[in-house]
């Protein structure tokens, strides 16, 4: 049950880009998170670090779990890069009726696009880049006024 909370934490990173209800977002992340956790199980300590410190632990599974979640959200492409165009397209579909929210999220994506230029050791696997992406999104989302749910 506690793994569910990790995915709820991660949901705030992407929830700003969905026009779905909080409950729909929560259910989607529970489903995706549980699916990804089968391939990339994390320890309770890793989960606590992610939830309380908003940091990705330096474990391969924690990083790869995030890569799995980001891939399923279409935010990480097959080369392990942050797909800003896909994230922006999702914004345009999900928030056509809220241009201010759409623009705010697009600014966040633009800021975090820099993770594609950061060196990684796992090539197109995307686990290292997902850790960079998580940190960038967390740090900048908080600065931009997005709230952690």
Describe the protein.
One of its GO terms (molecular function) is odorant binding. Keywords: Signal. InterPro entries: PBP/GOBP, PBP_GOBP_sf. There is one protein chain. This protein has a single domain, classed as Recoverin, domain 1 (Orthogonal Bundle). Helices cover about 65% and strands about 0% of the residues. The protein is built from seven helices and no strands. Helix 6 (about 100-110) crosses helix 7 (about 125-145). It is globular, with a radius of gyration of 14 Å.
Average pLDDT across residues?
81
Shape summary: globular
State Rg.
14 Å
CATH topology: Recoverin, domain 1
List the uncertain runs.
Answer: 1-9
Instruction: Compute the separation of the termini in Å.
Output: 18 Å
CATH superfamily descriptor: Pheromone/general odorant binding protein domain
As an assembly, this protein is single chain
What sequence of helices (H) and strands (E) makes up the elements? HHHHHHH
Note the beta-strand portion. under 5%
How many domains? The number is 1
Count of DSSP-assigned helices: 7
How many strand elements? 0
Please describe the biggest sheet, giving its number of strands, its sense, and whether it closes into a barrel: none
CATH architecture: Orthogonal Bundle
Structural class: mainly alpha
């Amino acid at each position: 049950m506690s793994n569910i909370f990790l995915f709820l934490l991660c949901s705030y990173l992407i929830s700003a880009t969905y026009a779905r209800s909080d409950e729909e977002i929560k259910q989607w992340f529970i489903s995706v998170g549980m699916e990804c956790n089968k391939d990339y199980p994390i320890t309770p300590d890793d989960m606590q670090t992610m939830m309380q410190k908003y940091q990705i632990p330096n474990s391969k599974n924690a990083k790869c779990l995030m890569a799995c979640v980001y891939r399923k959200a279409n935010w990480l492409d097959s080369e392990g890069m942050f797909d800003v165009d896909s994230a922006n397209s999702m914004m345009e579909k999900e928030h056509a009726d809220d241009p201010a929210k759409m623009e705010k999220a697009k600014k966040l994506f633009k800021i975090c696009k820099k993770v594609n230029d950061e060196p990684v050791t796992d090539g197109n696997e995307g686990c290292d880049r997902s850790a960079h992406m998580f940190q960038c999104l967390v740090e900048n989302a908080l600065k931009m006024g997005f709230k952690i749910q």
